[in-house]
Fold each of these.
Amino acid sequence: MKALITGGAGFIGSHLCEELLRRGDEVTVIDDLSTGRRKNIKHLESNKNFKFVEGTILNYELMKGLVDECDIVYHLAAAVGVKFIIDHPLKSMQINVRGTENVLELASKDKKKVLLASSSEIYGKKENGLFKEEDDRVLGTTTISRWSYSCTKALDEFLALAYYREKRLPVVIVRLFNICGPRQTGRYGMVIPRFIEQALSGEPITIYGDGKQTRSFTYVADVVKAMTELTNHPKAVGEIFNLGSGEGITICELAKKIRELTNSRSEIVYIPYEKAYQEGFEDMRHRVPDISKAGNLIGYWPQMKLDDMLKKIIQSVKQE
């Protein structure tokens, strides 16, 4: 199998590369390195089944050649992190919408399977219970740029499903919830690497908001394994799946846990959203998925527990 991974030099993409190569696939990565890092895939470049192309998914002619050569596209390239989206709203929308349209249009010519990586941001401000794939979306006003990301990822899903229904393009959509592991950077607001870096350096651990917001965290190896299994399952085509952990934790509890595991004396400091991001910023108070759909189809139940995950990431940050 020849796989093309867009955004393959990113955190999740680099781990997906490893999983596919381990399975014996040939892997080509395209990444413009705007948020991905060459060092994430440096150790793979000696593998004869691996190829890296530096470029953007907005380059239609470049993408045409790459899609023509592959059997399946794992479309992970997207704007990354709340901070990046707020700082670069136009670029984020172009990458997420125009880039995805390029991928789907080119893949549809020969009906090549596409796995589309979507986001838990889809659900917006919904607060009640676990998030199910068929739940309604609750979003804020268009004057708050944070919600533009949710809308662009929703449009990606609409496009993918339209290509499936009208062009019979085999697509699988996964909504990712706070995936964590080695190589993830805190540069774009990802909370676990940011907390760990602060704790290890003795700096204050900075919590945005009151810290009572709930999140779930899942180890990257569990998720990339699920991605590959979903692309191989015929009943996954044309469907949407939550991939994450069904166990939530408040951000305040997470900060305390990381401080304890790093033996840090860092102070925990609370920063208002307006200072961390922008005036009028709105957050999601609750973001924990119902993962039973993927669990029932492919037996997806995350194996790595939070404490073990944090220990692995702490060790990785120390080594870097």
Amino acid sequence: MRLIVGLGNPGKDYAKSKHNIGFMVLDSYAKTHQLKFIRETKFQGEYVKLSDSILLKPRTYMNNSGLSVRAVAQFYQIKNEDILIVSDDLDLPFSKIRLREKGSAGGHNGLKSIIEHLGGQNFNRLRIGIDRDDNKDVVNYVLGKLSKEQKKNLENLFIETNNIIENFISGQSFEQIMNTYNPSKSL
């Protein structure tokens, strides 16, 4: 069983914010495959259960995402290495992706909560760039709405993230997925 988690904040006020890119990625995947999320209180989130995987959108707010992730992982006995977390990243250009097998929270409170509740950093990450605006406070920037230009870039991003999720669900090794989708480094 594999678990794919999109990070975000519940509610209309946050729905189109940059910080909710993880929710948007899972919503795109669900729409493409005609899946419907179900709210489940014991998981503190919304989820879709497929035959060999689960899609999860925690409803705990970003800073407590680990509560929901741990509840699902424990219930279905999912190992950390079979978890993929989709989150926003201020340090990447908008819509650029970076896949990693493990690492620190990097200042991201959702990842910090997941590390704390899973008891380690050895879970897979799909980080999506939301860029940074040095003229704005970080909290206001990440909770701010996407610009029209940024919204236009989402269609191509969602094609790529849908493929990544599909590869992860199909059991492809994360190393192989990283080799396929991470931007190559110039020599």
Amino acid sequence: MFQCKRSGTVDTISSTQPLVRENQSDFLKSVESCFGKGQPHIVLDLGSVPLMDSAGLEALLEVRDRCGNLGGSIVLARPNALCRDILRINGVDRELNVFEDIGHAMGSFAK
């Protein structure tokens, strides 16, 4: 299950579930809950996400595009070594900003 928490104008989505095809709809529902509150500023906390697959990567890029269309963005925070490798190998780390901690990820929206 993906959970959304709002802090100021930034929504943080976190989960202990993998970001894979089986969980893609739950992830997208959580993201949907962030829309409609003005410009979407979303931090996806990957700290407890054990892995992701191609469907999860596609969902990330879909969310990036939807946020961009609304004048906002999504950033990633705290990926474990496996998720970081998956992001790098597939080039998604060049498409989305990746931060080592939540504080820097949230602060990136202040710029």
